[in-house]
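Narrative of activities, Objective 1.

The group set out to show that a structural description can be obtained from nothing but a protein's sequence at a throughput compatible with the screening campaign. Below is one input-output pair from the validation batch, recorded exactly as produced.
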Amino acid sequence: MKRVKADIGLTERPRVLRAVASARTALDRRLRAIPGMHYVLAACGIVTPFGWLVIASAIAGLVVAGVVGWAEAFALAIACVALLVIAIVLVAAPSPYRVSLRLPQERVTAGQTALGEIRVVNDTSRRGGSEVIELPIGAGVAEFVIPGVPSHRTWDEFFSVVTRRRGVIEIGPARTVRSDGLGLLRRVRSWDNPVTLYVHPRTVRVPFDATGFQVDVEGVVTAKLSSSDVSFHALRDYEPGDDRRAVHWQSTARLGKLIVRQYEETHRSHHLIVLDTARSSWDRDAFEDGVSVAASLALAGISASRTVSFAAGKRWIPATGAVSMLDSLASLTYSGRSNITALVRRAFASCPSASYVSVIASPAVTDEEAAHLAQVTPRDVTVQILRINPKQRARRRSLEGGVLFDCPSLRELAHLVGDIR
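Output recorded for this entry:
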């Protein structure tokens, strides 16, 4: 089994390379629009750089032999043509193989290994020869040498993709490569469609509850008792000051004394998570920890069937389900410059019903900026700022309207926020 390392970075290709690739794609699209040009491009595409050199040598030899009359140049041209003819004969024969790609697990966590399988089937009545199969994996290409497969037989080749960081890896399509011994021609055939591997961020279980202080009849049941709500708790004796509307008359008539209903208060539970994604604020490792911290908090709410809203920079991450949320985070990258205070204010304006706000901030956020962030929302909304700083020890500081955590890494998250209430 072949092991392939897929290093996923957050950096984009340089602007010049992107422009060249875009221009090449546009030119190829225009050429293919010309009738018959598709076949010309396909024929030219199988010629390697060394093959073009041999073709140029044959043409030059014929020209020199015709103009100057050199027999050596004519012999060189004939030799080049002979090599090209032999290469065409070797490459033109169709491959007897049919190739399929299978990835049993299309979602893994960063650091895990994804297993895959390439299946080669010989459906013909003759034995196939040895061929090379190329498998694009992210920015790299893995090569597999397939021995001759007998008629109506199958050959399975297994591979593993070692993931280091979160990201989205495109695997495939698998392609068979036929080439002559000198490498003049290279015929490639792609099979099936590529498979997408989602590498999710690392997460930890967090015993965190984002239930706020706002009373909401459609909210979450709390342990706080009340004489008027919708979640019935128990019956008790009447005490001076109780609302007469809470009297349970059937029990009162049966026991001969006033009995009242007691309820559990229901509070609003809507967790708003805001992740700063400004490129200038983070280094690579700290940003990965920030994404993992935000994902862990979101999973805590989703697993408890609470309402979660997740803003990553100017982008809203779907937080109705764990899989869709983690898939979106797998492709999350840096954004341009942004003001974190304006970011939080804009996110809360889009979710005014939030009962709890968690801000995942970079090490560049100062204590003064954190204190200002805690004042952005109304007083009945609690704000916690999680400053991801690998160089700082874990600590907690109370702010007016919120709390500031210094979180060195993902491992300390559960300890920091677990006993917040």
